[in-house]
């Protein structure tokens, strides 16, 4: 009969042996299954409404056009989006894997690579080979958003539990700024960004299952409120930054309600995706 490994624990000068906590593989797989299901359903809804429905496509277009920028803001957004290239993705992927390997977290290194590579390849295949839009050219999902969000989620997975709350806030802020920036610059409609979020959520589910299944250490932190709050704070900070640099309703007060709804919808998606992944990682990944 097999017994759990024993860990020495010192109590009052005496050393006692306690069973070593086991990795929560079952919990990881449950989280992954629910995430994957939500990603598939979310993607189906976005595709049906945003590119397979003329009414939905027109509304998505109006939401994009409700946002405008000053010339200075447009230039700053393009400067940031211009950093998103194949080379930058490869470099960031390599950095994430190396950092995880230096910390001897082999399962995390594999899962981060799976997340980044899987999400970005899936987006390119869906956009150019699979999905068709009622318009002449399909732009769903957003490639820039996929890059920003997949790298942000990989950073959350790699971060140690001590720094995960701070990394979560930064990851949410970065992903939100990139996603909102593509809409404000009129590169993508909101539906494109939401679809990219579902792609990344789906591959985060795969990464979570990989990390939870391969690791041999047990997680040691459960802070759902802190991590969810950190994600929300990051999104709010990105929203404030977007307004500060010069993103405005295109036609003033007339477009203000729709512009607020557009930014609010994008912010809610990023807050939920980043926050959910962070909470799940904290529960099941050492």
From TrEMBL:
Family annotation (Gene3D superfamilies): Phosphatidic acid phosphatase type 2/haloperoxidase
Q: Does the keyword Membrane apply?
A: yes
The Phosphatidic acid phosphatase type 2/haloperoxidase domain extends over 137-209
Keyword Transmembrane helix among record annotations:
yes
Q: Where is this region: Disordered?
A: 1-22
A Pfam family found in this protein is: PAP2
Membrane-spanning residues: 27-51, 73-99, 106-126, 138-159, 166-187, 193-214, 226-247, 259-281
Question: Cross-referenced InterPro entries, in alphabetical order?
Answer: PAP2/HPO, PAP2/HPO_sf
Which keywords belong to this entry? Membrane, Transmembrane, Transmembrane helix
What protein name is recorded for this chain?
Answer: Phosphatidic acid phosphatase type 2/haloperoxidase domain-containing protein
Q: Which organism is it from?
A: Flexivirga endophytica
Upper lineage is: Bacteria, Bacillati, Actinomycetota, Actinomycetes, Micrococcales
């Amino acid at each position: 009969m097999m017994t759990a490994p024993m860990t020495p624990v010192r109590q009052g000068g005496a050393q006692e042996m306690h069973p070593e906590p086991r990795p929560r593989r079952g919990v990881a797989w449950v989280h992954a299954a629910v995430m994957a299901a939500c990603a598939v359903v979310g993607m189906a809804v976005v595709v049906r409404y945003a590119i397979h429905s003329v009414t939905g496509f027109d509304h998505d277009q109006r939401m994009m056009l409700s946002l405008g920028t000053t010339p200075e803001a447009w230039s700053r957004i393009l400067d940031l989006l211009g950093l998103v290239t194949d080379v930058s993705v490869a470099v960031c992927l390599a950095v994430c894997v190396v950092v995880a390997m230096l910390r001897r977290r082999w399962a995390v290194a594999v899962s981060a690579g799976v997340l980044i590579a899987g999400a970005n390849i899936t987006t390119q295949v869906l956009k150019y080979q699979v999905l068709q839009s009622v318009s002449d050219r399909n732009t769903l999902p957003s490639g820039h958003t996929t890059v920003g969000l997949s790298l942000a989620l990989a950073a959350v997975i790699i971060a140690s539990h001590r720094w995960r709350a701070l990394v979560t806030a930064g990851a949410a802020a970065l992903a939100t700024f990139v996603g909102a920036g593509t809409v404000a610059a009129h590169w993508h409609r909101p539906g494109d960004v939401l679809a990219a979020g579902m792609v990344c959520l789906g591959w985060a589910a795969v990464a979570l299952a990989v990390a939870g299944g391969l690791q041999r250490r047990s997680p040691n932190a459960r802070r759902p409120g802190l991590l969810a709050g950190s994600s929300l704070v990051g999104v709010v900070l990105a929203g404030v930054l977007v307004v500060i640099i010069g993103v405005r309703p295109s036609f003033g007060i007339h477009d203000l309600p729709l512009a607020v709804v557009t930014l609010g919808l994008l912010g809610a998606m990023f807050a939920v995706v980043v926050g959910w992944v962070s909470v799940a990682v904290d529960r099941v990944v050492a």
